[in-house]
Every structure is written in structure tokens, then in C-alpha cells.
Amino acid sequence: MSSEAEALGRLTKLPARVGFTEPSTEREGANPCPLGLEIGWNFMSKPWTKRVREWLLIHVAPLPAALLLKCLWLSVRVRFVDREGVEALKKAGGQYMMAFWHGTLLLMVYAHVGDVKRLTFLVSWHRDGELITRIIKHFGPEPTRGSTTRGGIRALHGLLKKVKEGYDIAFTPDGPRGPARKAQAGVVQTARLSGLPIVPVGMAARRKKIMGSWDGFIVPMPFTRITFAYGDPIAVPRDLDEAGVEALRVTVEEALERAMARAEEALSEEAPWKA
Q1: How far is it, in rounded angstroms, from Cα 133 to Cα 14?
Q2: Which of 65, 114, 257, 275 is most open to solvent, judged by the fewest CB atoms within 10 Å of its CB?
Q3: pLDDT one-digit tens code per residue, 204-222
Q4: 200 CB contacts (<8 Å, ≥6 apart)?
Q5: Burial code of 96-135, b = ≥16 C-beta within 10 A, e = fewer?
Q6: pLDDT at res. 261
Q7: pLDDT tens-digit profile of 124-159?
Q8: What are the residue ranges of helices labelled H in 109-194?
Q9: pTM (2 d.p.)
Q10: Contact, 233 vs 199, CB < 8 A?
């Protein structure tokens, strides 16, 4: 087995989830449904009231959710710090992987340096993945659909294909289910296979609500101050062995924590703020 196949295999060994699943095209005569979802017995066996709520969540909620996020962004004052490294990389025509903790992703699309329409990320076929896809499409990024539990190798090949087409990657090293702020090896393996450097990005907000979710999801309050802090690009050699992957995993985790600390520090600095 090639090193690439072994790495992709390790990336797909995660616990299975239930609910909406990736459309199967392997069964004879099977075709994905028009909505990009395959609704199985798990969905149909639910009470009709819950099914209606889930339908509204997927088909109605994304547009108002996107509008609320855009209004939130327009209301805040923003500062970007230490992003000279990634700006130089993009100016030279390079691509990169933007890495950030799962709990900071709410407004992270605005932290991307470059054409946001040339940004992709891996999102599952599950219900929450479908909701994220429908919301984020209002902002420009192009999701790569796939699952880490069903057809994961095919999904990651799709992600790598987007890289060859010139896309940057957005990646949450502690996603999709934690532990929070603990980088997993997948971020290093994906960077190794894609050839992209990893750029850690931290975010902080002066006034915020921290949700009770596993990732301590951060929701900035309207009209507050927000900072995005960038670390230096981290190169990932293609010929890494297992020890090298682990060493770089720790490096990425530490760099992300430094970026988060730098973002918090920048909140109190007297410097120009973008309204």
C-alpha cells in the first residue's frame, strides 16, 4: 500500500455517526437524491413534527442565518494582526491551508486571505454538514462534500483535486468532535498530501458568548471588537514518517494556541480598527 493510501486510510478511521448519510453510488441503480441527502429509516421513523423541524432547518434556516452573520460582521470593529506572512505567500501566487480551532469558525470565512471563492473545506453529508454547506455558500467558499466515515478516501481525493485546481483549504484540526483545541494528525496528513503550508489563525472577541458545546463555540456580540491573528506558514514535508507527523501535529497545536493568545493580546492594543 502506498504512503498516500495509508495516510488517507488513517484519516477515515473515525467513529460512525447516524442521521443523514452520504448518497451511495456503489449500489446498483442507486443515485443521490436531488437534495444531496439520502434519507433513511433513521429519519423516516422520527415523529412528523421532528421531521418538519429538520426540513425547515435545512431548507429555510440557511438564508436568514447567513443574513444574520453578515449583519453581525458589518456591526463589529475588526483588526487583522501578523498576517504579513500569508499575504506574501498569496502575493507570490501560493496556496495554503488555513487552520483554526472549531470553536472560532463562526466568522472565520472573513479571515481568509485571497479570493474567498477559491476556498474549500471538507463537509460531511450529515444533516449538520448540509446546514453548514447551505449557509456558507452565501459567503462564496466552495465546499467539498464527503464523509470521514463513509467513502472518506473518495472525499479526501475530492479535496486534493480542488487543491490542484488552485483552491486554498480551511481546516479545523480539532474537528469534527474534539477534544477541543487538541490538534489531530489529519491536519498534518492533509497538508502533506496536498503540499500546502499550514497557516494557523486565532480569533478573539471583546464581548462574546461562549456556548456550552464541546468546542466552547464563540459567538461575538454585535458592535464588539474582533481580532484575527496569523502565525507563520508551517511547511509540511511529503516524506514524513509517523514520528514526524506527531512532531508537526504538536507544532500546529502550539502555533494555534500562540495565535489565539496573540489575538486576545491585540484586543487591548491601541491601533487602527477597521469599522
Answers
A1: 21
A2: 275
A3: 999 999 999 999 999 999 9
A4: 99, 100, 230, 231, 234, 252, 255, 256, 258, 259
A5: bbbbbbbbbbbbbbbbbbbebebbbbbbbbbbebbbbbbb
A6: 98
A7: 777 777 888 899 889 999 998 875 555 567 778 889
A8: 127-136, 152-164, 186-194
A9: 0.80
A10: yes
Gap between the Cα atoms of 265 and 122, Å rounded? 31
Q: Measure the CA–CA gap between 232 and 239, rounded to whole angstroms.
A: 21
End-to-end CA distance of the chain: 53
Asked if the structure places residue 180 within a domain, the reply is yes
Q: What are 138's three cell numbers? A: 452565501
Long-range contacts of 253-256 (CB under 8 A, 24+ apart): 253/173, 253/181, 253/182, 253/183, 255/198, 255/200, 255/231, 256/99, 256/100, 256/101, 256/173, 256/181, 256/183, 256/200, 256/202, 256/231
In a domain, 225, yes or no: yes
Task: Report the CATH number that the domain containing residue 42 is assigned in CATH.
Answer: 3.40.1130
Query: Strand 218-220 and strand 208-210: pairing?
Result: antiparallel
**Amino acid in position 209:** K
3-state secondary structure of 99: strand
Q: Which of 145-154, 162-171, 243-252 has the lowest mean pLDDT?
A: 145-154
Neighbouring C-alpha atoms within 13 Å toward the C-beta of 110? 18
- What SS3 class is residue 139? coil
Domain total of the chain: 1
Strands (E) in 29-86, as ranges, are 77-81
- How far apart CA 263 and CA 227 sit, in angstroms, is 5
Q: Is residue 228 included in any domain, yes or no?
A: yes
| Cβ proximity of 162 and 95 under 8 Å | no
